[in-house]
C-alpha cells in the first residue's frame, strides 16, 4: 500500500469511527454506515478485467467467458482496443444474453431481444447508491468508473457489497462500543419473511434444457431447484450451467435433459437453509460459501422458498433507506460535506491485448497484496459471478 493510500485509509477510519450508531434506530445502522463510504472503498488493490471486442463471434465470446471462468465481460468497440491505456468506452455488458439468444433463436424470435443500455456508477458515489442500483435496477454487476468516466476500475457485485458489510460492520457488532447488533439479526427468516416462499419454479433431472431456458426467461429467475421423484431437492440448475453448451459447442442441442450437461467446471453457488435459521446465519452462509442464493427446504428436503443476495440486501439496505428518505428531508442520505474518500488508488492500467481473439486483459494495482474482499481466484479477480 502506498503512503497516500495509508493516509487515506487512516483518514477514512477516523471519519467513520466517531459515529455512535447506538443512538439511531437499528434499521438505520447499515444504511447510515454505507452512506459514509464510496464505491472506491470496496475496490480491490489488485486484479484484472477481461474485456471483449464487439466484433467477436458469439461462440468465441462465450468460449472466452468459459475459458476465463467468468460470467460477464465488458464489450469495447474494436477500434478502441489499441487505446485501452487511454480510454475505455463501454458499449455493453455480455451477461447471460447467451441464454436469451439460445431461447429466441430456437423459436425464431431473435428480433424481439432488447438491447438494454449498460448501467454504471462513479467510484466517488456512495455505497448506498450502488446498493439501490443493484437492487432496484435488477442488475447483477455494476461497472465502477473513475471520475473522468473514461475507465472502468472494477465491477461491483451484490456479494462483494455484502462481504464488505460482513467484514467491516457486522464483525464489530460484538466487539465495538459504538454499534450494537440489530435485533433482527437473531430473528429467523420465517419471522422476517426475507425471500420468496410462494410459487417456486422447479424442474426435475429429465427436464429439457429448452424448457429450463423457458422458465429462466418467463419467470425471470436465475436458478431452478432440481427435484427427485419424491419431491426432494437434489441439485440446483443455474443459468451458468448452460454455458456448458458454449464449452462443448452444442448450441442447437436444446432437447437434452439438464442432467446431461457438463457441470464439472461449474462452481457451487447455491446452498440450502431452513425456516428456523436466523438472518445472521444466512448471511454467514452467503459470505463464507460465496453462495448467490439459498434454497429454503422443509424437514423432507422439499423446496419451500428461495433467498437471494438481492433479498438480503433489499432487507438490510434498500427498504430502510427508502423509509428514511420518505420520512423527512432531513433524514435523507446525502454525501458527507467532505466528500467520499476512496480507500485505494489505481495506477495506470497495464493492458495486454490478444488481437487474434479480441480479448484484452487489464491489470489493476501492483498485484502484490491480496484483496480480502476478493470473490474469485486472483486470475479473475474482478469478474465475479452471481
Automatic annotation (TrEMBL):
Name of the protein in its database record: CBS domain-containing protein
Claim: Metal-binding is one of the keywords in the record: no
Positions of the CBS domain: 114-171, 196-254, 265-324
Top-level taxon in the UniProt lineage: Eukaryota
Quaternary structure and interacting proteins, as annotated: AMPK is a heterotrimer of an alpha catalytic subunit (PRKAA1 or PRKAA2), a beta (PRKAB1 or PRKAB2) and a gamma non-catalytic subunits (PRKAG1, PRKAG2 or PRKAG3). Interacts with FNIP1 and FNIP2.
Transmembrane segments: none
Lineage, broadest ranks: Eukaryota, Metazoa, Ecdysozoa, Arthropoda, Chelicerata
Region (Disordered): 361-386
PANTHER family in the record: AMP-ACTIVATED PROTEIN KINASE, GAMMA REGULATORY SUBUNIT (PTHR13780), LD22662P (PTHR13780:SF35)
Pfam families the record matches: CBS
One Gene Ontology cellular component annotation held by this UniProt entry: cytoplasm
Compositional bias segments (type: Basic and acidic residues): 363-378
Family of this protein: Belongs to the 5'-AMP-activated protein kinase gamma subunit family.
Key words of the record: CBS domain, Repeat
Record bears the keyword Ribonucleoprotein: no
Any one Gene Ontology molecular-function term assigned to this protein's record: protein kinase binding
Amino acid at each position: 500500500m502506498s503512503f497516500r493510500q495509508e493516509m487515506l485509509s487512516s483518514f477514512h477510519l477516523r471519519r467513520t469511527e466517531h459515529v455512535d450508531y447506538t443512538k439511531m434506530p437499528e434499521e438505520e445502522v447499515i444504511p447510515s454506515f454505507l452512506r459514509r463510504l464510496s464505491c472506491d472503498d470496496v475496490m480491490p488493490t489488485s486484479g484484472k478485467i477481461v474485456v471483449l471486442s464487439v466484433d467477436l463471434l458469439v461462440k468465441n465470446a462465450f468460449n472466452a467467458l468459459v475459458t476465463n471462468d467468468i460470467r460477464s465481460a465488458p464489450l469495447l468497440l474494436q477500434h478502441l482496443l489499441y487505446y485501452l491505456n487511454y480510454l475505455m468506452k463501454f458499449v455493453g455488458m455480455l451477461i447471460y444474453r447467451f441464454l436469451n439468444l439460445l431461447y429466441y433463436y430456437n423459436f425464431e424470435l431473435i428480433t424481439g431481444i432488447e438491447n438494454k443500455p449498460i448501467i454504471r456508477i462513479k467510484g466517488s458515489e456512495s455505497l448506498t447508491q450502488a446498493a439501490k442500483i443493484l437492487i432496484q435496477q435488477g442488475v447483477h454487476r455494476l461497472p465502477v468508473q473513475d471520475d473522468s468516466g473514461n475507465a472502468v476500475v472494477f465491477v461491483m457485485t451484490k456479494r462483494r457489497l455484502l462481504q464488505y458489510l460482513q467484514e467491516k460492520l457486522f464483525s464489530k457488532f460484538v466487539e465495538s462500543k459504538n454499534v450494537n447488533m440489530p435485533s433482527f439479526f437473531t430473528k429467523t427468516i420465517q419471522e422476517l419473511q426475507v425471500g420468496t416462499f410462494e410459487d417456486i419454479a422447479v424442474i426435475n433431472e429429465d427436464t429439457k434444457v429448452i424448457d429450463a431456458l423457458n422458465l429462466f426467461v418467463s419467470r425471470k429467475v436465475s436458478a431452478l431447484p432440481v427435484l427427485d421423484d419424491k419431491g426432494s431437492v437434489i441439485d440446483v440448475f443455474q443459468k451458468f450451467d448452460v454455458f456448458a453448451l458454449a464449452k462443448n459447442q452444442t448450441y442447437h442441442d436444446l432437447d437434452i435433459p439438464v442432467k446431461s450437461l457438463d457441470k464439472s467446471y461449474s462452481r457451487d453457488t447455491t446452498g440450502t437453509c431452513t425456516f428456523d435459521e436466523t438472518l445472521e446465519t444466512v448471511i454467514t452462509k452467503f459470505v463464507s460459501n460465496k453462495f448467490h442464493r439459498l434454497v429454503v427446504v422443509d424437514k423432507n428436503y422439499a423446496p419451500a422458498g428461495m433467498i437471494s443476495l438481492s433479498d438480503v440486501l433489499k432487507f438490510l439496505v434498500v427498504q430502510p433507506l427508502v423509509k428514511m428518505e420518505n420520512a423527512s428531508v432531513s433524514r435523507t442520505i446525502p454525501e458527507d460535506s467532505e466528500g467520499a474518500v476512496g480507500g485505494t488508488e489505481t495506477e495506470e492500467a497495464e493492458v495486454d491485448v490478444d488481437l487474434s481473439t479480441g480479448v484484452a486483459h487489464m491489470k489493476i494495482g501492483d498485484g502484490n497484496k491480496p484483496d480480502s474482499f476478493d470473490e474469485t481466484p486472483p486470475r479473475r479477480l474482478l469478474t465475479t459471478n452471481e
